[in-house]
Specification:
InterPro entries: TTL/TTLL_fam (IPR004344), TTLL_monoglycylase (IPR051437). It is found in: Cytoplasm, Cytoskeleton, Flagellum axoneme. This is TTLL3 monoglycylase. By secondary structure, the chain is an alpha+beta fold. It folds into three domains: 68 residues; 221 residues, ATP-grasp fold, B domain (D-amino Acid Aminotransferase, Chain A, domain 1, 2-Layer Sandwich), CATH 3.30.470; 170 residues, no CATH class. The protein is built from 18 helices and 16 strands. The strands form four sheets. Strands 11, 12, 13, 14, 15 and 16 form a six-stranded antiparallel β-sheet that branches. It has a four-stranded parallel β-sheet with strand order 2-1-5-6. Strands 7-10-8-9 form a four-stranded antiparallel β-sheet, with helices on both faces. A hairpin with a 2-residue loop joins strand 11 and strand 12. The radius of gyration is 26 Å and the shape is elongated. About 21% of the residues have low confidence.
Length: 595
C-alpha cells in the first residue's frame, strides 16, 4: 500500500489484471456478488449515458466505494438502464482469475480498507468520485456524453464552426435530432432538397444512357441488371411506366433557390433557410420515389441537361457532401439510447419499407438502427415507437453514406482507438493500429437489411455469411489495418492510408473533442480510451460515425485478440509507466495534439 500499487478492475479485463500484477500491483477485488463475470457488452457506457436522466452523472449509490468496500452491482432499480444484451464474443477470464493458491484473494483481503490507486471500470459511475484522491488514476472522465452519444455528438458538432471555424459537413454526415422541433424541420427540408438533387442526378444518368432523348420510353433492356456495388445504376423504366416531365423542372427550381441560399450563407445561420416554393412537396416526393425506387422514367431536354450539370457542379465548400450523398436519398435513423445497432440484433431483418397506411411494424419499433429512404417512414417511426430508450423523441437521423468504398463488394467500417490523457490542456494520443469490420452480405442500396449495412460485431454475429458473398471476405469479418493497406496497394492506392485516411481520422477526432471540450468533466489523474467508428468514401475520405466510450476489448477474431491486447498493454504504458519514465515505450500510440 505504501508503494501506491493497489488496483481495482470492474468487468472482464483479464489483460489489464495480468499486466498490473506483472508490475507488482495488488488487486483489491470486488465482492463475488459484484463480479459475476460482468460481460463487457461493448460500448455499454455510452448506452447508459444516453438513457440516464442526469447527464452530469455521479448521483445516487456508487458501485465501488473505495473506502467502504465494493457495493453490489445495484446502481439502479430500473432494469431498462442496464439492458445487457448479448454482444460481441464473450471474453474469458480464465487464466487471470485462476488463483489456485488463493494468493490474490489473500492479498486482496489485506488491502480491503485501502483506497485503490488505479481504477479501471466499465463506466465512471462505478466509482464514488468524491472519495478519490488527486493522484488516483481512473479510466474515465465525467460528462463525455457530449461526444460519446449520438445525440451529444450531433449537438456538439453543430457548435464547431464557432469554436474552430471548421465545417463538420466535411467529415461528419449531416445529422439532426428529431426531438427538437427546429432540427426536425431542418431535416424535413434537407430530405426534400436532397430528393431534388437526387432527381437531377438520376435525370443526368438517364441522359447519359440516351444522349439524344425524345419523348420515348426508356429501353427496358438497359440497366436492368443489378450488381452489388457502392452505387448501383438507376434502373430505367419498364414499357408503359409513367414519365414525369414536370419533375425535372420543379427539381431545377428548388436547386436554384438552394444554390442562392448557399452563396449568401453566413456563420449566423446554422441550417440553410427553407426554399419556399409553390411545389407540392408531398406530390413531388411520391413521384420522386417512383423514379428513384420503382424505375419510372424521366424526360430530360438538352437545355435541362445543361442546367442540371451546372447546378450539380458546385464547389466542395458549398456542398461538401454532394458526392457522398448519392442519388437514392437514404437516411439512417438511430435511437439516442442504444449503441452497436442494439435492438436490431435478432430476426431476419429483411424490412426495406414501412407500411404507409398502417402502423409501424412491431419489429421496427424495437430500438435500433434503421435505414430508410422515405420521409414519412422516418417521421412515423419516430412518433410511433414507445421503447424506453427513445421516449421523449430522442432519435437522431443522419444522411447515409451512399457512395462508399467497399471491399470485395462488401461494406466495412473502421474502429480506431485514441486516448485522452488531459483536457486542460487537451492532450490526445492516436493509436496507429486499428481494425476493419465487415458485413455478412454483399452491399446493396436496393436492400436495406442490417446484414448489409451495419458493420457492428454485435449485429453481424447473428448472421452467417451469405452464399453470394465474395469468398475473399474474411470468414470472421475482421481485417487489420495492415491488411487494408495491402488491399489499397492492389487498387493502386498505396498512399491513401497515410495521405488521406489517417490524417482525415485524426482531424475528425480532434474536431469532435474540441467541440465538446468545455462540457467534459475534467479531473487530473484520469484518462480515457475511446473507439471512433469511420466509414470510407469512394475517394478514400473517412467519415466519422460515432465515438464510443469504453470500447469493447472482447476479441471476436484472431486480429482483435491481438490488437485489443496490444492497445490495453500500450494504454498502461502510456498512463502508468510514462509517469516514472517519460522515455519508455508507449507502443503504437502517437501524440497528435497538445494545447
Amino acid at each position: 500500500a505504501q508503494e501506491k500499487k493497489i488496483f481495482t478492475v470492474q468487468g472482464p479485463y483479464p489483460i489489464i489484471r495480468r499486466l498490473l500484477r506483472a508490475r507488482g500491483w495488488v488487486e483489491r477485488k470486488l465482492p463475488s456478488t459484484g463480479r459475476q463475470r460482468e460481460q463487457h457488452r461493448g460500448d455499454q457506457n455510452k448506452q447508459w449515458l444516453e438513457t440516464r436522466p442526469n447527464h452530469g452523472g455521479g448521483q445516487g449509490e456508487a458501485l465501488l466505494n473505495p473506502r467502504g468496500g465494493a457495493q453490489p452491482f445495484l446502481r439502479t432499480t430500473d432494469p431498462q438502464h442496464y439492458p445487457w444484451l448479448p454482444d460481441e464474443e464473450e471474453e474469458e477470464e480464465e487464466q487471470c482469475d485462476e488463483d489456485p493458491d488463493s494468493i490474490h484473494d489473500l492479498m486482496s483481503y489485506l488491502v480491503r480498507d485501502q483506497l485503490p490507486n488505479f481504477i479501471w471500470t466499465n463506466f465512471l459511475e462505478a466509482t464514488d468520485r468524491q472519495l478519490l484522491q488527486q493522484d488516483n488514476v481512473v479510466n474515465h472522465y465525467a460528462r463525455v456524453d457530449a461526444f460519446t452519444t449520438k445525440e451529444g455528438l450531433c449537438l456538439s458538432l453543430q457548435k464547431l464552426p464557432w469554436i474552430e471555424q471548421a465545417d463538420p459537413n466535411t467529415f461528419f454526415p449531416r445529422c439532426y435530432r428529431l426531438g427538437t422541433r427546429d432540427e426536425r424541420e431542418a431535416f424535413i427540408e434537407d430530405f426534400r432538397l436532397t430528393a431534388a438533387r437526387s432527381l437531377l442526378k438520376l435525370a443526368l444518368e438517364e441522359a447519359g444512357d440516351m444522349p439524344v432523348r425524345t419523348e420515348q420510353v426508356p429501353n427496358s433492356a438497359k440497366g436492368t441488371s443489378e450488381s452489388h456495388v457502392s452505387h448501383p445504376k438507376h434502373s430505367t423504366a419498364r414499357p408503359g411506366s409513367p414519365l414525369y416531365p414536370e419533375l425535372v423542372e420543379e427539381a431545377l427550381e428548388v436547386c436554384k433557390q438552394h444554390l442562392g441560399v448557399l452563396q449568401h450563407q453566413d456563420i449566423d445561420r446554422s441550417t440553410p433557410s427553407p426554399c419556399r416554393t409553390c411545389i407540392d412537396w408531398d406530390h413531388f416526393l411520391q413521384e420522386y420515389y417512383h423514379v428513384a425506387h420503382e424505375g419510372a422514367g424521366l424526360v430530360l431536354t438538352r437545355q435541362q441537361q445543361k442546367q442540371c450539370q451546372d447546378l450539380l457542379w458546385l464547389p466542395a465548400d458549398q456542398l461538401p457532401q454532394l458526392d457522398m450523398e448519392g442519388k437514392l436519398n437514404i437516411w439512417i435513423l438511430k435511437p439516442g439510447a442504444e449503441s452497436q445497432g442494439r435492438g436490431k440484433a435478432g430476426g431476419s431483418g429483411e424490412h426495406t419499407e414501412v407500411p404507409h397506411l398502417g402502423g409501424v411494424p412491431l419489429s421496427l419499433c424495437s430500438p435500433g438502427i434503421i435505414c430508410t429512404r422515405r420521409l414519412e417512414e422516418v417521421l412515423q417511426l419516430a412518433r410511433s415507437c414507445t421503447a424506453p430508450s427513445v421516449q421523449g423523441g430522442r432519435w437522431v437521423v443522419q444522411k447515409y453514406v451512399e457512395r462508399l468504398l467497399t471491399i470485395f463488394g462488401t461494406k466495412f467500417d473502421i474502429r480506431q482507438w485514441f486516448v485522452v490523457t488531459d483536457w486542460k490542456p487537451l492532450t490526445v494520443w492516436f493509436y496507429q493500429d486499428c481494425y476493419l469490420r465487415f458485413c455478412s452480405r454483399p452491399f446493396s442500396l436496393c436492400h436495406l437489411e442490417r446484414a448489409r449495412h451495419l458493420c457492428n460485431v454485435s449485429v453481424q454475429k447473428w448472421y452467417k455469411t451469405s452464399p453470394d458473398q465474395d469468398p475473399r471476405v474474411p470468414h470472421d469479418k475482421i481485417w487489420s489495418n495492415k491488411q487494408f493497406q495491402e488491399y489499397l496497394a492492389q487498387l493502386g492506392q498505396a498512399d491513401a492510408w497515410h495521405q488521406l485516411l489517417v490524417p482525415g481520422m485524426k482531424a475528425a477526432i480532434l474536431n469532435a473533442l474540441r467541440s465538446a471540450q468545455d462540457q467534459v468533466g475534467f479531473r487530473k489523474g484520469s484518462f480515457e480510451l475511446y473507439g471512433a467508428d469511420f466509414l470510407v468514401g469512394e475517394d478514400c475520405q473517412p467519415w466519422l460515425l460515432e465515438i464510443n466510450s469504453c470500447p469493447t476489448m472482447s476479441p471476436s477474431s484472431a486480429v482483435t485478440r491481438r490488437l485489443c491486447a496490444n492497445v490495453q498493454r500500450d494504454t498502461l504504458r502510456l498512463v502508468l509507466d510514462r509517469k516514472d519514465n517519460p522515455a519508455c515505450s508507449i507502443g503504437a500510440f502517437e501524440l497528435i495534439y497538445k494545447e
